[in-house]
Design goal:
Shape: globular
Radius of gyration: 20 Å
Structural class: alpha/beta
Largest sheet: 8 strands, mixed
Number of domains: 1
Bound molecules: adenosine-5'-triphosphate, magnesium ion
Distance between the termini: 9 Å
CATH class: Alpha Beta
Number of helices: 11
CATH architecture: 3-Layer(aba) Sandwich
């Protein structure tokens, strides 16, 4: 299982939107995916159509060890399980303050089921507190959603240093996989300047021993799209709410990135191409290898037997309440039908530059824990 912490201590940058919709894309591609709502705001839980007050066993109960990890998972879509959040999570940090090993509770709770799933995405709160430390201790990868505005890089160094510190003291497997640009406006020079700044920063870290020396700016980025802002209030993923919109297209590409699939470089439309593909805005493809093998992503009818659970009625109100008693399925027919079919091809290697000799010096803010190399 690849465990990915979706982390940025800045608020409102697209963490929850990215975690939910990337997970949905991976689940639609047939991978078994767990999502963990590690934010007391419970936005991921709500986004997936679960009412937080109805959650009886979730992230809080797992952290306080009053419930097991696997038994607390709710099946919310085909191939997609949720460890939900509720308001109790607010108190977790203070309740655990005297607990020895409090940073690694989630990691230990997940140990028994790591081979049962393909991906786990953890939606972190906008802080670098105990909840985020638990996420970083349990993960091998960090995905940093970032909104490319003029304060975007403020705090970015601190975030990377925190990841590096966890890497060195608690979890040596932890690496920053990449930065996902959200609400990106390719026409705005500021967005492009921020992107170039981050790429330069990450390039300068190549060959260093830092936790981000292999990080890239993801070739896929998320355009500003009102559908992405509307979908949570209906308790739907973007693929359920509007599978043809730009937001769905963009998150399919993020899913493909994690599947190691390269997306088809966008070329000017040719007259003879009359495919039924929805048209999307032109995107810069600077990171795409010219040798990339194109793939086809299209809506297809779902084969029999793929959906493991029955379909429930589509919610019509925001944040529909769902009973907790048994695994839930909130599968719904999307207007366009069903999951995506994705044919896999190789992924191009990210462009590398000369290594820098600079190794970051993280601040000493965390307690020492023995490094866990037990496969977490
Ligand atoms: N690409 C986008 N285009 C338009 N709106 C977006 C986009 N991505 C996210 N949003 C909206 O922006 C707001 C913030 O997004 P989101 O909740 O994903 O951020 P977050 O980083 O999880 O926030 P928090 O730090 O509070 O947890 C939400 O209302 C969301 O619906
Ligand atoms: Mg959030």
């Amino acid at each position: 299982m690849r465990t990915i912490a979706v982390l940025n201590q800045k608020g409102g940058v697209g963490k929850t939107t990215s975690a939910v919709n990337t997970a949905a894309a991976l689940a639609a591609a047939g991978r078994r995916v767990v999502v963990i709502d590690f934010d007391p705001q419970a936005h991921m839980t709500i986004h997936l159509g679960v009412e937080p007050t109805a959650v009886q066993a979730g992230a809080y109960e797992v952290l306080t060890e009053s419930a097991g990890f696997e038994s607390s998972l709710m099946l919310v879509r085909p191939n997609l399980w949720l460890l939900a959040a509720n308001i109790n999570l607010v108190g977790a940090e203070t309740e655990l303050v005297n607990v020895v090993g409090r940073e690694i509770i989630l990691r230990e709770a997940m140990q028994g089921c790591r081979d049962k799933f393909d991906f786990c995405l953890i939606d972190c709160a906008p802080s670098l507190g105990l909840l985020s430390l638990n996420a970083l201790a349990a993960a091998e990868e960090v995905l940093i959603p970032l909104q490319p505005h003029f304060l975007a890089l403020q705090g970015f160094g601190k975030l990377l240093q925190t990841v590096d510190l966890v890497n060195k003291r608690i979890n040596p497997r932890l690496k920053v996989t990449g930065v996902l640009l959200c609400m990106h406006d390719t026409r705005a020079s500021l967005s492009n300047e921020v992107r170039a700044d981050i790429e330069g920063f990450l390039d300068a870290a190549r060959g260093t021993n830092s936790a981000w020396d292999g990080a890239v700016v993801l070739p896929a980025f998320i355009r500003r799209n009102i559908k992405l802002a509307e979908a949570p209030s209906y308790g739907k993923t973007i693929f359920e709410y509007d599978p043809a919109c730009n937001g769905a297209e963009d998150y399919r590409k993020v899913g493909n990135f994690f599947l190691g699939i390269s997306d088809e470089p966008e070329a000017p439309p040719e007259p003879e191409q009359s495919q039924a593909e929805p048209q999307v805005e032109t995107q810069p493809q600077a990171e795409m290898s010219s040798a990339s093998v194109p793939i086809e992503i299209r809506e297809v009818p779902q084969p029999d037997g793929k959906i493991e659970t029955p379909v429930h009625d589509e919610p019509t109100e925001p944040a529909q309440t769902q009973p907790q008693a048994e695994p839930q399925a909130s599968v719904e027919e999307t207007p366009a039908g069903a999951p995506i079919e994705i044919r896999e091809v190789h992924v191009p290697a990210p462009t590398r530059t000369e290594p820098s000799a600079v190794t970051p010096e993280p601040p000493a803010i965390l307690p020492e824990y023995p490094a866990d190399s037990s496969g977490v």
